[in-house]
Amino acid sequence: MGGAAGGYAELLRAPHALRLLVGTLVGRLPNGTGPIAIMVFTRAEGGSYTLAAGLSAVYGLGNAIGQPLLGRAVDLYGQPRVQFPAALLSALGMTLLVAVGTDPLPPAYAAVAVAGLFTPPLEGGLRALWPSVLGKPDQVHRAYALDAVAQEVMFTVGPLLITLLVALWSPAAALLVVNALGVLGALSVVVSGPSRNWRSAPREAHWLGALRSPGLLALLGSFFFVGLALGSITVAGYAYAEEVGREAVYGWLMAALGLGALVGGTLYGARQWAGPAERRLRVLVGLLAVCYLPLMLTPGTAAMTALAALSGVFLAPVLACAFVVVDRQAPRGTVTEAFSWLVTTFGVGAAGGSAVAGPMVEWSGTTAGFAVAGAGGFAALLVLLATVRVLAAPPPSAAVVAASEASGAENDRIEGAEAGFSEPHQA
């Protein structure tokens, strides 16, 4: 663990690295806490759980639509021209929700739709910045691991922050403060030198954008099921807590899962990994799936908490390795959009897991809910195994770019020889 901490400390000493990581995490707080903040606010306004779930679903749907579209806009127009205006519009959406409340319903639904649709793709933007900030591939890969670990911190601290703000002020104040912090975090990122200077590589015009990469599609198919597994655990975990008669147990289980991910991600980022990331991802997803299976035992609370921690150990390494694969598989000039698609697919899968696990728990009990997690993990592995050749192939345009560069180098060599030079001509 000490070596891992030293490696991360060295990474964060790089110019701009700490600022970009912290700014991105703060900027993502509104998104990380959105569903719970909407739930608390709606209930405080006298709305039903059904209404709260409906508003959260519309927020999530807007987010799923907006992330890849805004990611493509970032690739085309740069980060500051997209990220900060989007953060302002998203915050204005939540401010409108506070202003109008939940009655009448149409403005409330419109408000959360705007907030979700314009959530800035800071997560994908940060991963696009790491290569220019750090330079060395091994440091970039370690940054991906740190990114995955930091996500677990955000998803742990975020709900606690909402709880604190509600206790000190009110649910409306919690929504406003968190979204104000999100705007400040986005601003901190976009005024930085790396964000202002970053430009996407030239891209081939294509309406599918990043989705024209078969390898990326294979990865997204797998990560839908990883998200499904995680979403089902959140539902089954709550059912387990009710079953044992102690709702606080749910918080312990989720905290333990996050702790396991923190430990796993820290250890994963502590060393350099040889071999193709795609092959390593298959191993990690397989281990993740295996670690979901013991949850079906549903033992006593102490043992169950330990099993929850075990189930999270390989989550952050899977995410970190997937970030490397996205970087390798994304067509030239679409990296932010590609990362945003991963975020969207994971979120849609988590929503699907919640939707499936709920009826399973009602029909067959808590064990069946955790069985959905195991099934999701192995489905994710099967997708990767079925697409080995697809993931091994270069993304669209990569071969064309390589051929073009080789052709250009050959032309330069000929021109240089004709001019009396033995080395390729340098423009």
Account of the 3D structure:
By secondary structure, the protein is mainly alpha-helical. The protein folds into two domains: 1-200, MFS general substrate transporter like domains (Growth Hormone, Chain: A, Up-down Bundle); 205-396, Up-down Bundle (Growth Hormone, Chain: A), CATH 1.20.1250.20. The protein has 19 helices and no strands. Residues 398-427 have low confidence and may be disordered.
What is the CATH architecture descriptor of the largest domain? Up-down Bundle
Low-confidence segments: 398-427
Number of strands: 0
Helix content: over 70%
Q: Please tell me what the overall shape is.
A: globular
What's the tally of helices? 19
Find the CATH superfamily of the largest domain.
Answer: MFS general substrate transporter like domains
Using only CA atoms, what is the Rg?
23 Å
Give a brief description:
The chain has 427 residues and is mainly α.
SSE map:
Layout: H1 2-12, H2 17-27, H3 29-44, H4 49-77, H5 80-100, H6 105-117, H7 122-134, H8 137-168, H9 171-190, H10 193-197, H11 214-244, H12 248-268, H13 277-292, H14 301-312, H15 315-329, H16 335-364, H17 366-386, H18 388-392, H19 398-418
Helix pairs in contact: 2-7, 2-9, 3-4, 3-8, 3-9, 4-5, 4-6, 4-16, 5-6, 5-9, 7-8, 7-16, 8-9, 8-12, 8-15, 11-12, 11-15, 11-16, 11-17, 12-14, 12-15, 13-14, 13-15, 13-17, 16-17
